[in-house]
Design brief:
membrane; mainly alpha; 2 domains; 489 residues
């Protein structure tokens, strides 16, 4: 008998939200640490050219993965709404169409990337000394794309079904194998060939492939409600309405990641104009901020999945409670990270800067000004996750565009003659507060509750309009499906 998935439409919201968000947060931390460890192996033992090569190739990889982030989120919401509506047949149709779409897309990217790797690196201006190394690394990374995309898609689908623990377990397994395979394949230890920098990419391919195989076997063994076997082959035929929803709703969500990356590049360009010491200080602060923003991102993803199920179940009272509980959790978890980073910043920033460097004091100064912005960023991320759970994906995108390109970048640029580098640091909290206020306003007065991921004829139970009063609580009809044990700005 299939064990039941987690029902996010019943039970205490705060407890369920934290239990759901913590594995996503743990997965984000594990991936960041994995990247850091791999950079140590390459940089310390293969040299600066190899590290430059890996950095250039990884930029392409992160862009490609980020570009499908939104489509994965769309699949999460579609499956979540279906599970909340107790429509497992629709959830399985979404699963089949989405799987075919993701696998087909990843194979096309892998094939094109293999032939275009050198051209892509040329277009990025990769230094000539690092170009052959980067090409060797990137070609293997493109071979790994089908496994990377498939694993990301399955993780998103499981989160939509109410499970964040299973993707976390297999992600930790992938990270552990990646860390172990790196030295073995780089240096040719034991029976393994000596592959140099390409060995690091092969470690990624092997670890992702094995983790993906393990996850598929687990779903098959557990007879998971989302598992599609040979008898379900018809479900793998793409449903054009579902594919259209994945693209139309997913592209704006993915575009947000692209706009964030471009804004960070614009900020880095301005910082570079103040010299090496300031740029190094900013780089050190960014290392810390990578971790500071993770709780908000994890809680936002958890809120989106939880809200999607409750939208499907027409539990608008729980959608509302999910939003405000997520905001509270953001303040607690993000604040718990910011406080020690302020109090101990002399030591934490010194981890990334040479002893006695003038950059340490510059980094402390900018950190004191800017790090608080992640509290407000978290509110925006949480509310955007809830708003997107109905299919309203354009307003969060417009809020992001306004806050980054209408406020942050112009503020930093135009006020530099008066404030010097402080204009850049103050642009972070100013834009974050504005984004939070816009998100709160749209959450309160916007028409996101009337949005749909799919038209009613497509079978997803999304109400045409919000009832004037929250409906009576749905009786606990019992769990369905299978038992289930996670976005870098």
């Amino acid at each position: 008998m299939t064990p039941p998935p987690r029902d996010l439409t019943t039970g205490p919201i705060g407890r369920n939200l934290l239990l759901f968000a913590l594995p996503i947060l743990g997965g984000n931390v594990a991936q960041s640490l994995n990247g850091s460890v791999n950079a140590v192996w390459i940089g310390r033992f293969l040299g600066e050219d190899a590290l430059t090569a890996a950095a250039n190739a990884n930029n392409i990889m992160f862009f490609l993965i980020g570009s499908v982030f939104g489509i994965g989120m769309a699949a999460t919401i579609l499956i979540g709404q279906s599970m909340g509506a107790r429509d497992t047949a629709q959830a399985r149709r979404v699963m089949g169409s989405s799987a075919t779409f993701f696998i087909g897309l990843s194979v096309l990217i892998a094939a094109a990337g293999w032939w275009l790797a050198r051209h892509l690196l040329h277009w990025m201006g990769t230094p000539p000394a690092a170009l052959p190394l980067a090409e060797a690394y990137l070609r293997v990374i493109f071979l790994a794309m089908p496994a990377l995309y498939a694993f990301a898609f399955l993780s998103a689908a499981l989160r939509g079904a109410g499970d964040s623990r299973t993707p976390f377990r297999f992600l930790v397994l992938a990270v552990a194998m990646d860390v172990a395979f790196n030295p073995l394949l780089i240096f040719g230890i034991g029976p393994f060939p000596r592959l140099g920098i390409a060995g690091s990419a092969w470690a990624t391919l092997l670890s992702q492939g094995l983790a993906l195989a393990g996850l598929l076997l687990y779903l098959r063994h557990r007879r998971h409600v989302l598992w599609l076997g040979r008898k379900d082959a018809a479900l793998l035929r793409p449903d054009l309405r579902i594919v259209r929803a994945l693209v139309v709703k997913g592209v704006p969500m993915g575009l947000q990641m692209v706009l964030i990356s471009l804004a960070m590049i614009a900020m880095m360009t301005m910082v570079n104009g103040f010299g090496t010491a300031t740029a190094a200080a900013y780089g050190a602060a960014l290392q810390l901020w990578t971790y500071v923003q993770m709780p908000a991102m994890a809680i936002g993803a958890a809120c989106s999945s939880m809200a999607a199920q409750n939208v499907g179940a027409r539990r608008w009272d729980r959608v509302e409670s999910t939003a405000w509980t997520g905001v509270l959790c953001n303040f607690l978890l993000t604040g718990a990270l910011i406080a020690p980073l302020i109090l101990l910043d002399r030591w934490t920033l010194a981890l990334f800067l040479p002893a006695g460097s003038e950059s340490v004091e510059i980094a402390r100064h900018l950190n004191h000004i800017a790090v608080w912005s992640f509290l407000f960023f978290g509110v925006t991320f949480v509310l955007s996750g809830v708003i997107r759970s109905t299919g309203a994906v354009i307003p969060p995108l417009l809020i992001l565009v306004a806050s980054l390109w209408g406020i942050r970048v112009p503020f930093a640029e135009l006020l530099q003659p008066r404030l010097d580098a402080d204009a850049i640091w103050w642009s972070f909290p100013v834009s974050a507060i504005c984004a939070m206020l816009m998100s709160l306003a749209y959450y309160r007065w916007g028409r996101w509750r009337q949005a749909r991921m799919l038209a009613p004829a497509d079978g997803v139970a999304v109400p045409a309009e919000v009832p004037a009063q929250p409906p009576a609580p749905v009786a606990d009809t019992g769990d369905i499906g299978g038992s289930l044990g996670s976005g870098r700005a």
